[in-house]
C-alpha cells in the first residue's frame, strides 16, 4: 500500500538554526510527493512538490527538499529557521486526487 | 491566483440543525475535494468531485451530503450531525489534466463545532 511516514512527532529548534524534517515514502511507481505547512486553525499551504526530474526541489519561504530514491526519502530542509516557521508540517504522497498524508511533525521554534 | 475560499470560517450547530459549508475557486480547476481534519491528525479525504461529478466517496455517513453546482463551487450540506463530527473541514482543488502533474490547493477551512 502507498504511504508516507513522518518519524518525528515534534521537533524543537532554535531560531536561526538549520532544520530537517524527515519523510519516508512507500510507493509502487514514481511518487508524487508534497510538503504542506499548517498554522494552528488554518488550512494547508503547499511548500513544495516533486513530480520528476531534478531531485533537489526549491519551495516557498526558503524551504527545499531532496528526493532520494535509494533511501525512499523526501526530507524537508531550511538553512535558518525563523520564529514564524513554527507550525505543523505534513508530507503527502499523490496524485492530487488521492492524497495520503503522513501524521505530521510539529515544529517549535525557541528564541 | 492560487486561492480556495471557504465560508464560513467558524460554525456552531446543534444536532438537529441543517447547515452548509461553501467552497469556491477561480483557478479553472476541474477537481474539488472535501477533507475532514480532527485535532492533531492529518486531513482525511471525504469526497472527490471530478468535472462536477462525484467520483470518490470515502464511506462518509449520509449526514454529510456534497454538492457541486458548477466547476467553481463546492458545497457540503450537513444534517443531524453528532458531536464527534466536530472538526476542521478543508476544501481543496486541483487541475485534472492527465498530461500534466498537478498539486492540490487548500482553503483555510471551516471550524465546525456540533453541540
Please describe what this structure looks like.
The complex is a heterodimer of chains A (111) and B (115). Chain A is mainly β. In chain A, the strands form 3 sheets. In chain A, strands 2, 5, 6, 10, 11 and 12 form a 6-stranded mixed β-sheet that branches. In chain A, strands 3-9-8-7 form a 4-stranded antiparallel β-sheet, with no helix packed on it. The N and C termini of chain A lie far apart (41 Å). The model of chain A has no long low-confidence stretch (mean pLDDT 94). The radius of gyration of chain B is 14 Å and the shape is globular. Chain B is built from no helices and 11 strands. In chain B, strands 2, 4, 5, 6, 9, 10 and 11 form a 7-stranded mixed β-sheet that branches. Chain B has 115 residues and is mostly beta strands. Chain B is 0% helix and 56% strand. In chain B, strand 7 and strand 8 form a beta hairpin.
Spell out the blueprint of helices and strands:
The complex is a heterodimer of chains A (111) and B (115).
Chain A: E1 3-5, E2 10-14, E3 19-21, E4 24-26, E5 33-38, E6 44-50, E7 56-58, E8 64-68, E9 73-78, E10 87-93, E11 100-101, E12 105-110
Parallel strand pairs in A: 2-12
Antiparallel strand pairs in A: 1-4, 3-9, 5-6, 5-10, 7-8, 8-9, 10-11, 10-12
Chain B: E1 4-7, E2 10-13, E3 18-25, E4 31-37, E5 44-50, E6 53-57, E7 64-70, E8 73-79, E9 87-94, E10 105-106, E11 110-114
Parallel strand pairs in B: 2-11
Antiparallel strand pairs in B: 1-3, 3-8, 4-5, 4-9, 5-6, 7-8, 9-10, 9-11
Average residue pLDDT of chain B = 92
Taking Cα atoms only, what radius of gyration of chain A do you get, to the nearest Å?
13 Å
Q: Report the major sheet of chain B.
A: 7 strands, mixed
The ordered string of helix (H) and strand (E) elements of chain A is EEEEEEEEEEEE
Number-wise, the strands of chain A total 12
Query: Tell me, what's the shape of chain A?
Result: globular
How many strands, what sense, and barrel or not for the largest sheet of chain A? 6 strands, mixed
Which structural class do the helices and strands of chain A define?
mainly beta
Question: How would you spell out the order of helices and strands of chain B?
Answer: EEEEEEEEEEE
- DSSP summary: helix tally of chain A: 0
Query: Percentage of helical residues of chain B?
Result: under 10%
Q: What radius of gyration of chain B results from the CA coordinates? A: 14 Å
Amino acid at each position: 500500500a502507498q504511504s508516507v511516514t513522518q518519524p518525528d512527532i515534534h521537533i524543537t529548534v532554535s531560531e536561526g538554526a538549520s532544520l530537517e524534517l524527515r519523510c519516508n515514502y512507500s510507493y509502487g511507481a514514481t511518487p508524487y510527493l508534497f510538503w504542506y505547512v499548517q498554522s494552528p486553525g488554518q488550512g494547508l499551504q503547499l511548500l513544495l512538490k516533486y513530480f520528476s526530474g531534478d531531485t533537489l526541489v526549491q519551495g516557498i519561504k526558503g524551504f527545499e527538499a531532496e528526493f532520494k530514491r535509494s533511501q525512499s526519502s523526501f526530507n524537508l530542509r531550511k538553512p535558518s529557521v525563523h520564529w514564524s516557521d513554527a507550525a505543523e508540517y505534513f508530507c503527502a504522497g499523490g496524485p492530487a486526487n488521492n492524497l495520503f498524508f503522513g501524521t505530521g511533525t510539529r515544529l517549535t521554534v525557541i528564541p | 491566483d492560487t486561492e480556495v475560499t471557504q465560508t464560513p470560517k467558524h460554525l456552531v450547530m446543534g444536532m438537529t440543525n441543517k447547515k452548509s459549508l461553501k467552497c469556491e475557486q477561480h483557478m479553472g480547476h476541474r477537481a474539488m475535494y472535501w477533507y475532514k481534519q480532527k485535532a492533531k491528525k492529518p486531513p482525511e479525504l471525504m469526497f472527490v468531485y471530478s468535472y462536477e461529478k462525484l467520483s470518490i466517496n470515502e464511506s462518509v455517513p449520509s449526514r454529510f451530503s456534497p454538492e457541486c453546482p458548477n466547476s467553481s463551487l463546492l458545497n457540503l450540506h450537513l444534517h443531524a450531525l453528532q458531536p464527534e463530527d466536530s472538526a476542521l473541514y478543508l476544501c481543496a482543488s486541483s487541475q485534472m489534466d492527465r498530461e500534466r502533474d498537478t498539486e492540490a490547493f487548500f482553503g483555510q477551512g471551516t471550524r465546525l463545532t456540533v453541540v
